[in-house]
Amino acid sequence: MALDIIAGDYLVISSTEYPIRAVEHWDTHGFGTSNSYALYATVACSTKRSPAISSGKRGKPANNLTSIYCTPLDRVDAETAAQLKTEVPFYTRQTFISDGTDYARLIVDHRRL
């Protein structure tokens, strides 16, 4: 597993941080050589991770993965939305991300305006 992404990290797109609620890593046997993913992964992004708690305080999130691309944020299916039970001020969105060797589906919270 090459992508070091966990629930609790932040997906950063155009300086907007989206909390990552869930990560599904995919077995891509036979899929990793496909160029079709590159046609959809058009959004430059990075991830941030909060450091460990020290002296009872958590530090500011720092860059974790940089210079990667994901698909545009999209709605999740009704089943996934029901399982996550998103609170009212948020939309649940999904994106697919890859570093060229590993692929993952990220479920993120997107604040309603």
Structure description:
- There is one protein chain.
- It contains 2 helices and 7 strands.
- Helices cover 11% and strands 45% of the residues.
- The termini are far apart.
- The protein has 113 residues and is mainly β.
- It has a 6-stranded antiparallel beta barrel.
- It has one domain (10-111).
- The longest helix is centred in the last third of the chain and has 7 residues, at 78-84.
- It is globular.
- The mean pLDDT is 83.
Shape, principal axes of CA atoms: globular
| Strand arrangement, major sheet | 1-2-7-6-4-3
Q: How many individual helices?
A: 2
Which structural class do you get from the secondary structure elements?
A: mainly beta
What Rg is obtained from the alpha carbons, in whole angstroms? 15 Å
Q: What number of structural domains do the residues give? A: 1
Strand coverage percent: over 45%
Please provide the ordered H/E string of secondary-structure elements: EEHEEEHEE
Q: What structural keywords apply?
A:
single chain, about 110 residues, mainly beta, six-stranded antiparallel barrel, globular
Itemize the secondary structure elements and their pairings.
Blueprint: E1 10-13, E2 16-26, H1 36-40, E3 43-49, E4 62-70, E5 74-75, H2 78-84, E6 90-98, E7 103-111
Antiparallel strand pairs: 1-2, 1-3, 2-7, 3-4, 4-6, 5-6, 6-7
